[in-house]
Design a protein that fits this description.
CATH superfamily of the largest domain: Zn peptidases
CATH architecture of the largest domain: 3-Layer(aba) Sandwich
InterPro entries: M28_fam, PA_dom_sf, Peptidase_M28
Pfam families: Peptidase_M28 (PF04389)
Shape: elongated
CATH class of the largest domain: Alpha Beta
CATH topology of the largest domain: Aminopeptidase
Strand content: 15-25%
Number of domains: 2
Helix content: 25-40%
Largest sheet: 10 strands, mixed
Protein name: Peptidase M28
Radius of gyration: 25 Å
Distance between the termini: 40 Å
Keywords: Signal
Structural class: alpha/beta
GO molecular function, one term: metalloexopeptidase activity
Number of strands: 20
Oligomer: single chain
């Protein structure tokens, strides 16, 4: 499906992008109407067939899920750089290349770490989750305390013992159950440790088991950060916290068992990469400013098989964003804008927004020259006529000016029904804080995220290229392009919100 945007509609979009009181600069060579015509012509370079071809190539099994910090991510990044070279954009990474290299720091349990409960020998990271990598050597009697209510704990002296309990409860403050559960594991373990427990063993109830099935794999790899981050420093010996599936309850609750573990931690660094390219602007002054189009190329890699499939392809998350940026590049190459367009594929987003944290801290262009960040994150699923624009609702709103431009582009183009709930501070998923626009927004740079939101295949092997709605992805790409084109041609940068402050 291709949108037919008239010059009149696009001219209106460009006018909406500029404050009414601001006159055109004298050195401008084009009127809004003529600039709109150029945008309409360049939009023809954005083709559904190209997007589909690129997405199938990137999110097929060849790149094995593009796990951050692996050869698979680096091979996929090399493929993307080759596509960018073929389109004709200039390298904007380090040393005249498309690449900006950075190191991940990883802290994990060594393969030789051991764990046993009674007669059950468990493999850490496989049969049992260790919620945080820690050095620990513990041999102690195991006591089961039910759900660890005050009445149950009053009957047991936990000092010097390993304490087993079944997870229970539900959130009461509006956060998602997953966030509630991870907080509960942390906080309840801390309380039991303070009471004298030398190890804590959580056993899933039914709701926790659903999270265990979907999310326990995130603990397998340990912790990741940039060198110097507090979370990846080798910890001193700490109380081990173990999380078991619900199927282990029958034997884990038995009396008279011994808990024994020897956990050892190692830490090391290895590379990930950002891919950076630019299309220079045409205006003698404005070409020194950049509209940054953002996405990430990594996903979860190869994990334990689910229904026989072990590759987490990440088609929606986030090969959709990768294919969209290639399409937008083709449009800007066909017709450059007044400002320069900067394209950044961030590495290791799934490791904790590491590539965007690194680039925003060490950009390859002057940071003050970045006038806006348009971030593509999961743009190809759910209802064909709906989408969301994150960063459009306070306290996440850091540029009303940029948001007005994006909303005008939506009206001029795809006319999606916009879901505003996911952008609210009260939304249980906290979705605003989970993609690459965030480090830029924290620096005060106007930033928004284009997304079609989560779905049941999120972070599972079912996130496959065949499940993408390519007609919708085309329209999401066009919306993002139209916004960026308007920002790149307006006389002044988007104004920043005075007093912007995130809730966390």
């Amino acid at each position: 499906m291709t949108l037919r945007l008239t010059p009149l509609l696009l001219a209106g979009l460009l006018l909406a992008a500029a404050p009414a009181a601001t006159a055109q600069k004298k050195n401008r060579k084009t009127t809004p109407s003529s600039t709109a015509s150029l945008a309409g012509n360049a939009e023809s370079a954005i083709k559904e067939a190209d997007i589909k071809r690129d997405l199938f190539a990137l999110a097929g099994d060849k790149y094995r899920g593009r796990e951050g910090g692996t050869l698979d991510e680096l091979r996929a990044s090399s493929w993307l750089a080759e596509q960018i070279r073929a389109i004709g954009l200039e390298p904007a990474g380090d040393d005249g290349t498309y690449f900006q290299w950075f190191n991940l720091q990883r802290t994990r349990l060594t393969p030789g770490s051991t764990l046993s409960i009674g007669s059950h020998r468990l493999r850490p990271g496989h049969d049992a989750v260790i919620t945080a990598p820690t050095n620990a050597r513990v041999t102690a009697p195991l006591v089961f305390v039910g759900t660890a209510t005050p009445a149950e704990l009053a009957k047991v002296d936990v000092k010097g013992k390993a304490v087993a309990l079944q997870i229970s409860g539900a959130p009461t403050d509006g956060i998602s159950y997953r966030r509630y559960l991870f907080g509960k594991l942390r906080d309840q373990a801390a309380e039991l440790t303070k009471a004298g427990a030398v190890a804590v063993v959580f056993i899933s109830d039914a709701p926790a088991q659903a999270v265990y099935d979907h999310w326990s794999h995130i603990f397998e790899r340990g912790r990741y950060g940039l060198p110097g981050d507090a979370n990846v420093k080798v910890p001193a010996e700490q109380t081990p916290v173990v999380w078991l599936p619900s199927s282990d309850l029958s034997w884990a609750r038995q009396a008279g068992q011994q808990f024994s573990t020897e956990l050892k931690v190692e830490t090391f660094a290895y590379p990930s990469v950002n891919i950076v390219a630019k299309q220079p602007g045409t205006d003698a002054q404005l070409k020194n400013e950049y509209v940054l189009f953002s996405t990430h190329q990594d996903h979860d890699g190869v994990r334990a098989a689910v229904a026989g499939d072990s590759i987490y392809n990440g088609a929606d998350d986030n090969a959709t964003g990768c294919a969209a940026l290639l399409a937008i590049m083709r449009a800007f190459k066909q017709q450059p804008a007044s400002r320069s367009a900067l394209f950044v594929y961030h590495g290791a987003e799934e490791r904790g927004l590491l590539g965007s944290r690194y680039f925003s801290d060490k950009p390859t262009v002057p940071r003050e020259s970045i006038v806006a960040v348009l971030n593509a994150e999961m743009m190809g699923r759910n209802a064909p006529d709906s989408a969301a624009l994150l960063g459009s609702t306070a306290p996440h709103l850091n540029s009303s000016d940029l948001v007005r431009t994006a909303l005008a582009a939506n009206q001029a183009g795809p006319q999606f029904k916009l879901d505003v709930e996911w952008d609210k501070a009260t939304h249980p998923e906290g979705w605003y804080f989970r993609s690459d626009h965030l480090p830029y927004a924290r620096l005060g740079i106007p930033a928004i995220m284009y997304t079609s939101l989560l779905h049941a295949d999120y972070h599972t092997p079912k996130d496959e290229p065949a499940r993408i709605d390519y007609a919708k992805l085309l329209r999401m790409t066009q919306w993002m392009y139209l916004t960026g084109w308007a920002v790149a041609n307006r006389p002044t940068p988007p104004a920043r919100e005075v007093g912007f402050k995130l809730e966390r």
